[in-house]
Amino acid sequence: MDPIELTDTVEDFGRPAVPGTAIRTVRYATGSGSKLLDIHTSGRPDDRCVLLWHGMGPDERDVMATLAREIAALGPTVLVPDWRSDRPDGGREHLTDALRFGRDHVRASDGGPGRLILAGWSAGASAAVGVALQPELFDGWRPAAVVALAGGYRRPAATTGTVPLQAVGRAVAPVPVRLVHGTTDTVVPVESSRELHEALLAHGWDCELSEPVTDHAGVLGCVYGPTAGRCLPAAEPSVVALGRETARVIAGAAAPFTPA
What we know:
Largest sheet: 9 strands, mixed
Strand order of the largest sheet: 1-2-3-5-4-6-7-8-9
Strand content: 15-25%
CATH architecture: 3-Layer(aba) Sandwich
Order of helices and strands: EEEEHEHEHEHEHEEEH
Oligomer: single chain
Structural class: alpha/beta
Distance between the termini: 34 Å
């Protein structure tokens, strides 16, 4: 049975949204239970869909809400699931099941296999890149594009268990990859994305790197709140603008499909 039909839908209108967008929260099936996933939409016809993964912090889909709303305002539907990196499997089951939900959601929405763009921040960035590099682990499925934000690629990806930089040379069909990494990031230095960018280009991938002058949280349009211990929506206009530019990169990677 379709996973979407198995979810319990919870309408969530209490959180502020970008004008013209709406949010609803559902549950996606994973293991013997389920986890929460936010669906951000604009209400306008658009065949683009983005699955957006947060970083290492357990169940931090709220950290991605600011960026997700900005993406949705540009047209694509955005799916933001909770997942937990502190599980014995490093979150692999959650990520894989969220990906299955995303694929089914797109298929149900347009009546076909659908076009799903993978995007992620920090550990979620590595997870997204890993899927593109090892499609055989996901029934041979290929994302329409991957957008990786402030990621590190010298450690095993949570989705595959393989180090992305070591998997770049594998014989797989390339997909477009867009990298965004702040030049003042002290959590994951920008050199990480530069290295992946060069490696992908050397192997014939369509890859672009954007380097805004900001830190690890700034690429999301957020700031790190020491008291909260997590990223929070920024009030400073310049940081808000950075998040909107990241949203444009993601929406651009998810450009509407035009048949040849």
